[in-house]
From TrEMBL:
Transmembrane segments: 12-33
Sorted UniProt keywords: Membrane, Oxidoreductase, Selenocysteine, Thyroid hormones biosynthesis, Transmembrane, Transmembrane helix
Domain of life: Eukaryota
Record-stated family: Belongs to the iodothyronine deiodinase family.
GO biological process, one term: hormone biosynthetic process
Subunit structure: Predominantly monomer. Can form homodimers but homodimerization is not essential for enzyme activity.
Location(s) in or outside the cell: Basolateral cell membrane
Gene name of the encoded protein: DIO1
Pfam family, one: T4_deiodinase
Substrates-to-products reaction catalysed: 3-iodothyronamine + iodide + A + H(+) = 3,3'-diiodothyronamine + AH2; 3,3'-diiodo-L-thyronine sulfate + iodide + A + H(+) = 3,3',5-triiodo-L-thyronine sulfate + AH2; 3,3',5'-triiodo-L-thyronine sulfate + iodide + A + H(+) = L-thyroxine sulfate + AH2; 3'-iodothyronamine + iodide + A + H(+) = 3',5'-diiodothyronamine + AH2
Organism the protein comes from: Pan troglodytes (Chimpanzee)
Record protein name field: Iodothyronine deiodinase
Principal place of residence: membrane
Gene Ontology terms: cellular component: basolateral plasma membrane
Signal peptide: none
Length: 113
């Protein structure tokens, strides 16, 4: 609940548009210039160490970029980040926490006890 509802929905709409454009442009580039996009994705994978994993072949995971599943995953993560942030003077996000006993609750519930 950190952001006011109108602000949250406007930001969600903006993120939806950003992710949609990103996926569409990426998909078009992947179709038009597959070798160049593959080199760029592999270069990004080198930075993260993803390409050094012997269990992953680039032929298996490069086609998943810019797919429908990719779109929904990125959208979900970006929307979650909106809810996990707050503005100066605003309410803190109601993040999940775990008691030392292992019991799970949200931070606002934790602060009440």
């Amino acid at each position: 609940m950190g952001l006011p509802q109108p602000g949250l929905w406007l930001k969600r709409l903006w993120v939806l548009l950003e992710v949609a454009v990103h996926v569409v442009v990426g998909k078009v580039l992947l179709i038009l210039f597959p070798d160049r996009v593959k080199r760029n994705i592999l270069a990004m994978g080198e930075k993260t160490g993803m390409t050094r994993n012997p269990h992953f072949s680039h032929d298996n995971w490069i086609p998943t970029f810019f797919s429908t599943q990719y779109f929904w995953f990125v959208l979900k993560v970006r929307w979650q980040r909106l809810e996990d942030t707050t503005e100066l003077g605003g309410l803190a996000p109601n993040c999940p926490v775990v008691h030392l006993s292992g019991q799970r609750c949200n931070i606002w519930e934790f602060m009440q006890g």
